[in-house]
Design goal:
By secondary structure, the protein is of the alpha/beta class. Helices cover 53% and strands 8% of the residues. The strands form 2 sheets. An 8-stranded mixed beta sheet has the order 3-2-1-4-5-6-7-8, with helices on both faces. A two-stranded antiparallel ribbon has the order 9-10. Helix 12 runs antiparallel to helix 18. The longest helix has 34 residues. The radius of gyration is 26 Å and the shape is globular. The structure holds nicotinamide 8-bromo-adenine dinucleotide phosphate (NBP). Nicotinamide 8-bromo-adenine dinucleotide phosphate binds next to helix 1, helix 4, strand 6 and helix 6.
């Protein structure tokens, strides 16, 4: 009898193909299926030729070729296709079989699907997979959540294909119940938006303010990649700036309109829903939106005057300040992202392992960096750490970075170069370390026009007061609640 497959995969596009090649290379036999069935034969006879793959031409074939408990993983377009495939697979599975979604699904969908699949006596795993094509083939970062009973059955496959850090620890561990894995993957993508945007702001300042060429910037990024900023995104930026087409930097020929597939927006929406100040990522999403308004910007650039860009300072000092600005802002972005995960964990009853999440992001994924090792240490030192800025190492680093970071923001604003993420992060930092913010005035305004009441610094918390500010209003206060 032919050997049964260890796992089945639906979706032979870029991620699926590379992930099953990775699984096969680790000794697993994989059954593969795709909606457009010709792609199955093309793959099995092409990149998969001579390897341990079983090509299936229907869902029935796929399920029949699997060892029990059966594991069926989908890597298809997020959204309706995932629900459609679940409905197609469920009738063919038995109690205890496992459905896995490895796509970029929105976490509320994963919460709903986990409940639905469990109601059928089956188990569900929603796992973030990061690292793109190369990661899928050579070792992605994987963030699985869903039915906890499924984890022992998928752990070996997942951890064997995942990226590994220097000591061999896999960048994959159980994240938590229902949508926790996809939530953490979503925050990963939001942080990716932020890291990319602050790098772009540094690039614009070097180019427009300091007048640097792509070659000069390439050298700066090469240096930065050796220190605190050492990361995949700094590394690829170095390479992009060094890439030439017909002797000229290709990057300068690319249209300045950014696309997005929604995960940054979801992160911002989740932050607004949970009331978490996720300012750097929020600004990064809006920066992409503004970039996409190209025609309007071209129009505006012809009629609206700003300051003349003029830099008379010390260029080497400015480049050093830029490095500090990037590092300071990056710390803020992760502090905000972790703050969001903590609030979501409280809201959804997830028991997230924050150090473990840093380790999952340490290799294989787009935001991989040396810095994540220090986040892991911060949570090892204090698993209850309420904010990364209160960890002694990061507090010291951000304090050391702030002078240069402030000079960068001030110079950019004076010269009219937009740096929304670097500045919003600095404002968050100053707000976070302020004992008193002007919200006393804000509460007075709310009470003035809407009788929304206020608490007083000379009375215990929880007592609410209303003042008849004009003498014309009544004494009836509005109900006090937060939305
Ligand atoms: P795509 O996101 O392009 O999806 C292609 C797969 O979805 C093919 O198998 C295709 O079948 C199937 N599909 C589509 Br499209 N519409 C369908 C429908 N209406 N019903 C059923 N199947 C449908 O592939 P990908 O880039 O490999 O990504 C797979 C998943 O992984 C996505 O959720 C993506 O967001 C996520 N992801 C991608 C990356 C990346 O770098 N690309 C990284 C991390 C995560 P067909 O062959 O018949 O058209």
């Amino acid at each position: 009898m032919t050997k049964l497959a260890d796992i089945g995969l639906i979706g032979l596009a870029v991620m699926g193909e590379n992930l099953v090649l990775n699984m096969e290379s680790k000794g697993y036999t994989v059954a593969v299926y795709n909606r457009t069935v010709e792609k199955v034969d093309k793959f099995v006879n092409g990149r998969g030729a001579g390897k341990n793959f079983i090509g299936a031409h229907s869902i029935e074939d796929l399920v029949a070729s699997l060892e029990k408990p059966r594991k069926v993983m989908m890597l298809v377009k997020a959204g309706q296709p995932v629900d459609d495939f679940i409905d197609m697979i469920v009738p063919h599975l038995d109690k205890g079989d496992i459905i896995i979604d490895g796509g970029n699904s929105h976490f509320p969908d994963t919460i709903r699907r986990t409940k639905y699949v469990e109601s059928k006596g089956l188990l569900y795993v929603g796992t973030g997979v990061s690292g793109g094509e190369e990661g899928a083939l050579n070792g992605p970062s994987m963030m699985p959540g869903g039915s906890p009973e499924a984890w022992p059955h998928v752990k070996d496959i997942f951890q064997s294909i995942a990226a590994k850090v220097e000591d061999g620890t896999p960048c994959c561990d159980w994240v938590g119940e229902d949508g926790a894995g996809h939530f953490v993957k979503m925050v990963h993508n939001g942080i990716e938006y932020g890291d990319m945007q602050i790098i772009c702001e540094a690039y614009q300042l070097m180019k427009d303010l300091l007048g640097m060429s792509a070659d000069e910037m390439h050298e700066v990024f090469k240096e930065w990649n050796k220190g605190d900023l050492d990361s995949y995104l700094i590394e690829i930026t170095r390479d992009i700036l060094g890439y030439k087409e017909d002797g000229e930097a290709l990057v300068e020929k690319i249209l300045d309109t950014a696309g997005q597939k929604g995960t940054g927006k979801w992160t911002g929406v989740a932050a607004l829903d949970l009331g978490i100040p996720l300012t750097l990522i929020g600004e990064s999403v809006f920066a992409r939106c503004l970039s996409a308004q190209k025609d309007l910007r071209v129009e505006a650039s012809k009629v609206i005057e700003g300051p003349k860009v003029k830099f008379e300072g010390d260029k080497a000092q400015m480049i050093n300040d830029l490095k500090d600005a990037l590092f300071g802002a990056k710390i803020i972005s992760y502090a905000q992202g972790y703050n969001l995960m903590m609030e979501a964990a409280a809201e959804h009853g997830w028991n997230l392992n924050y150090g473990g999440i840093a380790l999952m992001w340490r290799g294989g994924c787009i935001i991989r960096s040396v810095f994540l090792g220090d986040i892991k240490k911060a949570f090892d030192n204090n698993p209850e750490l309420p904010n990364l800025l209160l960890d002694p190492y990061f507090k010291g680093k951000v304090e050391a970075a702030q002078a240069g970071w402030r000079r960068v923001c001030a110079t950019a604003l004076t010269n009219g170069v937009p740096v929304p993420s670097l500045t919003s992060a600095l404002c968050y930092f100053d707000g976070f370390r302020s004992e008193r913010l002007p919200a006393n005035l804000l509460q007075a305004q709310r009470d003035y026009f809407g009788a929304h009441t206020y608490e007083r610094i000379d009375k215990p918390r929880g007592q609410f007061f209303h003042t008849n500010w004009t003498g014309r209003g009544g004494d009836t206060a509005s109900t006090t609640y937060d939305v």
